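Running this now, will post back.
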Amino acid sequence: MESMEVVHIEDVPVEEVWARLQNNANSVLIDVRTRAEWTFVGLPDLKQIGKQILTVEWQTSPENRIDAAFPERLTKVLDAASAKKEVELFFVCRSGVRSRMAAEAMANAGYGRCRNVADGFEGPLDANRHRGRVAGWKAAGLPWVQG
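Update: finished.
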């Protein structure tokens, strides 16, 4: 992957992401986790606001390495969804790390309104080393479905 320019990506709390997705018909939520995570951990559910989540893996398995073709692959998915470069894109992963990198990659590809979903889908580990209870999409009680 070529070197990317350093860009500022805003971290947006999950409740605010939900409100912005609800209030802006063109905004898009993109889940960059792996197929296994979508299947076994679940996905944000946007049906009640009339939207569908876009799913494009940031890392490829089994090596779990960053996919250098991610910007091109996601651009094709966004084009198919009629999402223009000026729409607000929210990137989500497990806890906010991969999604930040994905948002930076897409900002460098010309998408000017890339945001990171703070704390991701499951958030950080709690005292018992479990996710989904302290912060993030699930902990906030936002709609989700088991893949």
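The domain at 10-141 is CATH 3.40.250.10 (Oxidized Rhodanese; domain 1). More later if anyone needs it.
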